[in-house]
UniProtKB/TrEMBL annotation:
Alphabetized UniProt keyword annotations: Kinase, Transferase
InterPro entries reported in the protein's UniProt record: ACAD10-like, ACAD10_11_N, Aminoglycoside_PTrfase, Kinase-like_dom_sf
Stated name of the protein: Predicted kinase, aminoglycoside phosphotransferase (APT) family
Domain of life per record: Bacteria
Taxonomic source organism: Loktanella atrilutea
Positions of the Aminoglycoside phosphotransferase domain: 27-250
Keyword Kinase listed: yes
GO molecular function: kinase activity
Keyword Kinase: yes
Pfam assignment, any one: APH
Amino acid sequence: MAENLNIRAVASWVEGRLPGLDRPVTVHRFQVGQSNPTFRIATPAGDYVLRRKPGGTLLKSAHAVEREFAVQRALWDTDVPVPRMHLLCEDPAVIGAPFYIMDHVAGRSFDDPRLPDQTPADRAAIIDSMGRTLAAIHSVDLTAVGLTDYGPGGDYYGRQIARWVKQYRASATEKIAEMEALIRWLEDHQPADDGRRTLVHGDYRIDNLLFAADGTDVVAVLDWELSTLGHPFADLAAVIMQWRMPPGPDGRGLAGVDRAAAGLPTDEAFVASYCKRTGLDGIPRFNFYLAFCFFRMAAILQGVKARGLSGNAANPKKAAKLGAYVPEFARQGLEAAITVTD
């Protein structure tokens, strides 16, 4: 047993279908992330990663490890870098929750978009690779990879707003006036459906990517829990949303950073590069998508806070710290909203 993972039960279920798990192994739980508990399993035949649903009472449709497994398996051998998927266990009786096992991908992870230990040239290349990978996700041929039914069609923002309002209210611990105002604004100002329907990651940011150990290319896109078929601008706006937060270990943003001196692109340059890669002339009313992303992240962090209070978070102290940002995300969402013109 290693921090909530019964490796003997895992090995028994695998029954020799995965090399190395029938021998002595070591297990390490990753402490990053607040969603699905994740473990590195080192075996004589190579290293694997096991990702499982957390314990306790969960919100409906949350922590969907089954969907994570399905989308990453479909993306293997496309231009979107993902780990190789091996096995999915949907029986909660084995270790107490569904889980899947995938290859461990060696690489570097960054949780600070300032990339303080990199040169200006490498910072520019890392962010460019991040943008290139996002464009690749949105360019996936859904028919070719078998993902045409991975999400419902049409009215992406209507569905997402309704979903996250419901999730937010289910996990709310107090009334936040800015959040209520932002919800009302989004419900009243969502744009007409323009027909765009692509694979979307749902939580695209630098700390959900792995980069080459000796280079600047993205080698794996991780944490597909919120992925679906929907509108690609939500992923793009999520990147800009994160950059507008304060820098440091909590905000993990770029607010106030001299980007030119650091080798980092402006928001406008990053969006323009994305548009060039995807054949767009520009994105009208981009701030609607930005306001939506601030709202969705506020709802996600409220869920993190609630799990921390109930004892189901991977790191309860960090959950409380992240949950304290809910009012700030709501405030910035409203700030973005008032600049939108109809």
